[in-house]
Amino acid sequence: MQYHHQNRSNSSPQPHPTNRRDTSLSDLTAPSRPAARASGIKPVRIAPSAGSPTTPNDEPAISLLTLVKRTSTSIRNFLVTTALPLAKRYWGQLQDLLQPKPKEDLHPTVARALAGPPDDWRHPDHDPKRSWGEYAKEQAMRLVRELEPTPLREARKIMAKEQGIFKKLSALFSQLHFGLPRLDGEHIKPEAIGALPYEYTDPFLQETYHDLRRKYFPNRPDLDDYKVVWRDNPMPGPRAQAGCKGLWATSSTRPERFT
Amino acid sequence: MSHEDAKQWIPALVHHELCHGALVPFLDRQKDPHGEEFQALNNLHPDTKSFDAWNGQSWRDCFENYHQRI
User: Where are the domains of chain B?
Assistant: First the structure.
């Protein structure tokens, strides 16, 4: 073996620590000899290469091959005794980390909308004894009488401040199937009530609606009572100016409209 | 939408309306009707993004335009 100081003969002269000329890198990095003796660690030295200068005090060093073997043994021991048990222990978590992340959970509201209709939902103002049409027309007539002299734009501001009537009115107009009057400051006129706008529907449109409902909302048969129509677009803007029809869905049992 | 080229987008458009109806009972009326919940539903239809691109002025823009004027 090419160990050094433990097996060294006592008869050989010991270099004085201060006089040592051996300053190889292996010695610098190796534990100090007394400390090594105390801990039982055997310091190693790499054998000098063929062309490197040697000194008479150079101690025999282990070969690079031996060092590699020892290192590989140490690595193997580490793998067997430490890494592998840890890997086994945390294999499940590791798999979770490595697997692609699942899609984000659906927003709770979206999940509820897909799950099915609400059991007890109805409009808070809805009196089940009356149809929405009757209720809507009654409320609309009342509001129109009250607000008739007021330009619509101003009227909406007033209604928005007062008890949220604006929202109610929006729903009422849509329920009455005549659409909102142009929102450009025209007065709401009583005679507008009941004036049906141009409305167009066809079997293809309605069939498309039901196909989509069954495909994407299989748990929402309650949505089947909507009627999908093309209607004059009451919204201001380029669509209305161009005379575009808006697509509307209306229901005989719901006050909401959407477009 | 009465143009021939537009007919291919009718299902995406109808689906858009359908999503509104589906969310009506579950959404606060004060909330943006085209908010994230709506978008999540609307994107279930594969043609939604293509339709928006074709449309040029998205539904959201139209809605905001509407509210800017009142």
Answer: 3-69
